[in-house]
Amino acid sequence: MTSLGGFAQQQARRFGDTPLFFSGDEVVSYRGYDERTDRLAGGLARLGLRQGDRMAVLLPNGLPILEAYMGAAKVGAASVPLNPMFTPREIEYVVNNSRAKVMMASPRDAERVQAIRDRLPSLAHVVVAGEAVAGTLPYSQVASAAPLEVTAPVDGDDVAMIAYTSGTTGHPKGAMLTHAGLLDNAAAVVEAVGFRGADRSLCILPLFHVFAIAFDYLQMMTVGASSVIVERFDAGVALRLIERHRATVLVGVPTMFIYILRHPDRQRHDLSSLRIGDTGGGPVPTALKTEYERDIGMVLLESYGLTEASPVVTIERPGLTRREGACGLTLPGMEMKVVDAKGQEVPPGELGEMLVRGPNVMKGYFEMPEATTRTIVDGWLHTGDLMRKNADGHVSMVDRLKHMIICGGYNIYPKEIENVLHDHPAVLECAVVGVPDEDKGEIPKACIVLREATQATEAEIKQFCRESLAAYKVPRVVQFLASLPKTATGKIRKGEL
């Protein structure tokens, strides 16, 4: 199948009444999901949403957000996921940049949108999932319309989703992800990892992010598996739901896995059903993988991806020998190479920028041709990530190009320091950033959260780093914090540090 709508119909025929989503006390089957999204698509079409239009989605985790994505896809429109943590200014930018025609929102967010409605000229309708908000339409009314009789003739190369990047280098850019790209990426991960119909994932990631959309939605749906939708991450809630639903798959950022493992109630819950975990989006301590395998019996795989690649590029394979610091092998059907500043491929083990080519690569940035041309060259997506590829094809991420610290002429990659810090027994979380220095230009600063009931000093941390790092890489400043600032997906906000 080349379209998401066709995919939903196909899986409904294959798996019928098999549970697809668990959300609170509600269970939705494959057939039920297809029927519900047919009705929602019919309602959206009656609001004037047409093929090629955009629909903004500003919803928390739950059934409505998953139905919104598929309902829009069946009309032939592109979903535009928005982070519920966005400020009104950020919402205004994304809605206006994408020229969204319809918005799906929670009551809280609908009220915020209504307050700036006069600054959103393209937005014709706001549909609210929950309590009524003046000037909006109830989701229940739109979602109970007569089913869309004819699904839009969507091609695999049509845009299914416009996912806006974090905007760390300026205004956010809308990565145009295609129907075929999303489905191909899901199928490739399923093949690489070995997900199966009996699997059940616990969705602790936010579903406005393509990480969760890939693993907890499309990949599970590809094999006839199911997902338990959690509204927001809480380690204690996650422990209870893993036990209750006998979850077999757990996907999240490293911080989430750390909090689950360190939760005081962890030993009281039966987690033996877990068999595969996947993590990425930050430094993954080797000790964390070891602890999950030893204490819980789950293989914790490390993966690498980015929004522009729909999103997964590499992932470790269950059963293969683990490589220290590696984030796996390239997915089936995808090409990857590591190049120097001149675009020449570097020898195995050498540092360079990762380039990716395949059906998963975005179509481009929405109405940003210059940015697209800079990012995709001859079909190759320039990721901006510094990598090493070994002779056997295993890839290790060193850092983001933009995170590199230049200290007195030396290039320092924060992830290398963070990996060392994670080996310190008192360190729970850490992040290394560059801070200005009159003599060196920049110096590395380590921001550290300590484990409960542990202590460490700045001098101790520096000495620990000296044992594993060249002198110029040792943090010049160490700051102990109660917590690290994070995005809604759990990634550390290094800009704030």
List the helices and strands and how they pair.
Layout: H1 4-15, E1 19-23, E2 26-29, H2 30-46, E3 54-58, H3 63-75, E4 78-81, H4 88-98, E5 102-105, H5 107-115, E6 125-128, E7 137-138, H6 139-142, E8 159-164, E9 174-178, H7 179-193, E10 200-203, H8 210-223, E11 226-229, H9 235-245, E12 249-252, H10 254-262, E13 276-279, H11 286-296, E14 299-305, E15 312-315, E16 329-330, E17 335-339, E18 351-357, E19 364-365, H12 369-375, E20 376-377, E21 380-389, E22 395-400, E23 405-407, E24 410-412, H13 414-421, E25 427-437, E26 441-450, H14 458-466, E27 477-480
Parallel strand pairs: 1-11, 3-4, 3-5, 5-6, 6-7, 10-11, 10-12, 12-13, 13-14, 26-27
Antiparallel strand pairs: 1-2, 8-9, 9-19, 14-15, 15-16, 17-18, 18-21, 20-21, 21-22, 23-24, 25-26
- The number of strands is 27
Determine the fraction of residues in helical runs and give it as a percent range: 25-40%
Largest sheet: 9 strands, mixed
Oligomer state equals single chain
- What would the average pLDDT be, to the nearest integer? 92
Sequence of strands across the biggest β-sheet: 2-1-11-10-12-13-14-15-16
**Total of helices:** 14
Strand content: 25-35%
Radius of gyration from the alpha-carbon trace, in angstroms: 23 Å
- Distance N to C terminus: 45 Å
Structural class: alpha/beta
**Overall geometry:** globular
Name the CATH architecture of the largest domain. Answer: 3-Layer(aba) Sandwich
Tally of distinct domains: 3
Question: CATH superfamily assignment of the largest domain?
Answer: ANL, N-terminal domain
What's the CATH C level of the largest domain? Alpha Beta
Q: And the CATH topology of the largest domain?
A: Rossmann fold
- Poorly predicted residue ranges: none
